[in-house]
């Protein structure tokens, strides 16, 4: 056992940035070996309004059926990845097990996918947590991921303009209708955003209920355009 630990310690000194998925040693730029990076479920073909993954042959400007029937309150949505293994395991590790070393490489995956924005927003707003949830978790994963992305693009980020004023029950396990009811009047705006082009940053989009409710609040407060950036999107609603 001691020999194995000694070998691991030596390897960590020689190869400090092993692959996060397979532990292959090597100084990988994004902390993924080339094979694991290529295997990641990037959300390359998606609805431009809600980022729902679409079949590979779908035209890049085609909306999903849901957005054709009723367009979202927000104006566009981009996500880097599909929320499925191994991405779901990495995000859960960050979110529920305080694996904070994952913040930088996960945020880097988003900037890899987005590239250079066609038009930079005036301000980035991370999806807020209620103070009680923040105390339970110890950090807001959307804020910490957003900080890295904002720094990469030279964007201003503000985590105080939007507040979560109602301590809603956890969204996990709720259907879309229940999520909408759970989030009703959950947010408040404490600042001047009139005429602003905003980008909301989140870790995972499931049904879109959270970003929809927050976008409604921001539009009522005078926001002109709201784009959504998120690390991952669930494949179905």
Task: Outline the structure in words.
This protein is α/β, with parallel strands linked by helices. The protein has 2 domains: 1-39, no CATH class; 41-233, Rossmann fold (3-Layer(aba) Sandwich). Helix content is 37%, strand content 15%. The protein has 9 helices and 6 strands. The strands form 2 sheets. It has a 4-stranded parallel beta sheet, sandwiched between helices. The protein has a two-stranded antiparallel ribbon with strand order 3-4. Strand 5, helix 9 and strand 6 (225-233) form a beta-alpha-beta unit. Helix 5 packs across helix 7 (141-153). The chain is globular, with a radius of gyration of 19 Å. The termini are far apart.
Beta-strand percentage range: 5-15%
Shape: globular
Structural class: alpha/beta
Instruction: State the CATH topology of the largest domain.
Output: Rossmann fold
Total domain count: 2
Largest sheet: 4 strands, parallel
Question: Could you spell the SSE succession in H and E letters?
Answer: HHHEHHEHHEHEEHE
Instruction: Report the average pLDDT across residues.
Output: 87
Catalogue the unreliable spans.
7-15
* End-to-end distance: 47 Å
> How do the strands of the widest beta sheet line up side by side?
1-6-5-2
